[in-house]
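As a warm-up, study this chain.
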Amino acid sequence: MSEAKLLQMTGISKSFGSNLVLDGVSLEVGAGEVVALLGENGAGKSTLIKILGGIYKSDGGEIAIKGEKKDIHSAAIAGENGIRIIHQEIILVPERTIAANVFLGRELRNQAGLVDAKRMERETQKIIDDLHINLRAGQLVSELTIGMQQLVEIIKAISADAQIVVMDEPTSSLSHGEVEMLFKIIGLLREKNVGIIYISHRLEELFAVTDRIVVLRDGKMVGDVPTKTADKDDLIRLMVGRELNSYYTRNVHKIGEKSLEVTGLSHEKYFKEVNFYARYGEIVGFAGLVGARRTELMKTVFGAFKNTGGEIKLDGKPIQIKNQRDAINNGIVYVSEDRRGEGLILDNDVEFNMGLVCLSDFIKSVGVNKKAWSEMVESYRKKFSIKITSPKQRTGTLSGGNQQKVVLSKWLAKNPKVIILDEPTRGIDVGSKAEIYEIIDQLAANGVSIIMVSSELPEVINMCNRCYVMCEGKITGELLEDEFTQEAIMKYATHRESEE
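Now compare it with the structure written out below.
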């Protein structure tokens, strides 16, 4: 008789009202096995994981751990069974130490019943050292990069003797070096016979780190293939149910005059004397590694951060941008990389979020022109194929791709001259990415000036007309599209001033 799998989820079904989200899905994970869970946003991945984590109760099916059937009806029960979920959204207390976060809710106590902070630090530091991570258990979480905070979540799972670890888009905020560190940690977890469910839209990662790839589409399992025999195009076809012949969409457009020109722009902390420009109908990329200060530069152009010198021109004329309202009034908008934290009010509905920026356009002397507002929402819903049950649907319930389309609609309703897109496809499935690329291409065709910050080099290479590369707050290179290669971009992305 063969040994029971570490985890068996069999015939899992779940509906929300009349909406069938999971339809008889089965998933197995062996000890020391890394299984990818792949699918478009809305395919049912999150619901399946929330059922495993005790957040949702399934309508049908069963869960077994090491062959023993389990009733996982709460997060606490999931924890007792060795299940740990590392969410894409980091859930840590910034003003507490790494050790305090690792033991949050299960603090170690001394004989007097008091919290034993020193013992927690010792035990946390031992795990950190075993994983060869350059951290101190006594550091405040607020001092860490987002990438290192993600690694703290993994330390937290390991400290709780996890048997089954779910990693949801674990590399979305990691630098190249941090990704390599994560993969080494996964290797160590394998050796400890921990089973891992790895969720990512980055197919190259799945080929690097997983044993099997399970594909969901529309709430059903449509594929379960060994990674070593998997084919990228076949996986995409399984995910979206169709061919994606034009994954990247970039047609030849007329490039016009300079729209935005930045000269000698400085920030007291992040960058100094930066120069760049963008033109109408052009897609300008900004590439670089984590810490290059691309986001900080763009937030300064947008007025979210205060500059300490330099000049910004629009259509050849100097403009003053003291705050975000000044930027918006001048036709410059910024789509944040953090759509959930900065781009949307998740607890409010789609209609509200789409109208946030252009609310003044709908205000009449006697109130709000609700008809015009609704017509605007409906026009963008159709234009971008946004999947919603109604304009009153809570935005937080949408898939990542549909949330990004709502953010874009919110800003495009202001008819901007310049749109800054910061990591526009982060955490979005391949089908939605293709749709976002098509939207970007159409905006360029309409003469909008687009600045695209992206950490995905294929995205920069396939979508942009020109590319600036940054390293540690400086623009270290500018490349034209016929000069684009990953090697050329990485050369400039690692070109520190000390090396000159």
